[in-house]
Amino acid sequence: MTEGDGPQVAARGVPAIQLLAAAILVFVVFAQGISAPFQKDAEPQSAEWIVSMVRDGHWFNPRDYYGFLDRKPPLYYWLSALASKATGGRVDETRARIVSVAAATLIAMEVLAWTASEIGVAEGW
Questions:
Q1: Distance of alpha carbon 87 from alpha carbon 47, whole angstroms
Q2: With 45 labelled, which of 70, 90, 108, 118 sits at a CA distance of 20 to 30 A?
């Protein structure tokens, strides 16, 4: 078997314009309902921790409205607080969820790019 006898592999990667189009599509799909009211108990509590960082400056030990400390890893809350501070310092449903939408979009783009380069462009889509 010679070097050229292997299976034909499509060109590696996805063109940048296709990645951009896919990112816009994914962002629009994931952003549906981003401004919907908070549900149940977990979402408002997460927003309370973000408020504690933005309003009170408790970046390492945010507290909810009852005074309980946050016991979760803080990266999501730090990024959400930075997004809130960058857009006026107000915490609402959209600002509390934008980090999740952006992260989901990035993960979807990474999966698309990897699948397209390792398996095939059609399978990546």
A1: 15
A2: 108
**Residue 61 DSSP SS3:** coil
User: pLDDT, tens digit, for every residue of 7-60?
Assistant: 444 456 778 888 899 999 999 999 999 999 988 888 888 999 999 999 999 999
> Residue type for 37, please?
P
pLDDT digits 0-9 by tens, 70-114: 888 999 999 999 999 999 999 999 999 999 999 999 999 999 888
Quote the CA–CA distance of 91 and 80 in Å, as a whole number.
9
Do the beta carbons of residue 62 and residue 52 sit within 8 Å? yes
The alpha carbons of the chain give a radius of gyration, in whole angstroms, of 20
Contact 98/85 with Cβ under 8 angstroms? no
**pTM for the structure as a whole:** 0.77
31 exposure class (CB count in 10 Å sphere: 0-12, 13-18, 19+): middle
DSSP string for 13-57:
S--HHHHHHHHHHHHHHHTTTTTSPP-TTHHHHHHHHHHHHHHH-
